[in-house]
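Input chain follows. Return C-alpha cells only.
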Amino acid sequence: VGRLPSVLAQVSLGLPGGDAYEPLALAFDEAGQAVALCYYGSAASEATSLLVTLDLARASRGRAWPLPGRTIGPLAAAHGQAYVAYEDAERRQHLAAVDLSTGETLADVTTDFLYSGDTLLCDNTGRLYIPLADRLEVRDGATLQLVRSLPYGGRPRERALALDTKRGCLYLITDERLRAYRLVDLRPLWDVPGPGGSLQHLIVDRAG
C-alpha cells in the first residue's frame, strides 16, 4: 500500500482580533521554502491579495507581502522568488516575480489570462513555463522576458504541465494529447493520445 499521508506541520494564519488570512494556493521552491497566496477581506475577488511566507520547520508564519493587484492564482516559487498572476485596476492581466525575502516586485509583465488552476513551473536554470490558452510560453525567471513560444495548434479547454528535471523532460497535456519536450532545447520528443476525460493536474513520479 505504501506510506499513508500524515500531517507534518500546521501553521496558523489567524490575526489579532479574530481575523485571518484566507489561503488560496501554496507553493514550495527547490529549497523547501513555502509561500501561501492569501487574501484579506470579505471576498477573494474584492479583497487585498498577498503572499505569506511560512516556516514549516517551526510551524510559524513569516512576513506578508501585499501584491499589486487582486489574484486567486496561479502561484509558483523558485530560487527565493514567487511567481503569481494578478489583475490590475484596469482589469489587465499581469505576471509578477516577487522577492520572498523583501516583498519587492522584481519583474512585472502584462500577459494573457491565466486560470487559477493553470500550472506555473520553474526549472533548475530559472526558466518559467506558462501554459496560456493557445501556446506554451517560456520566460526568463529573473526578467520575465519571453524566451520561447510553443503553439498548441489549437485552443484546448484544459492544459497541465509537469517537469522531470532528473531526465530533462517537460510534459504537456492538452485535452486528449500528451507531449514531451527535451528541456535543454525544448525539442519535441513525442506526442501521443492522452487519457481523455477532464484533467486537473499532471504529476511525474520518481520512476519517471
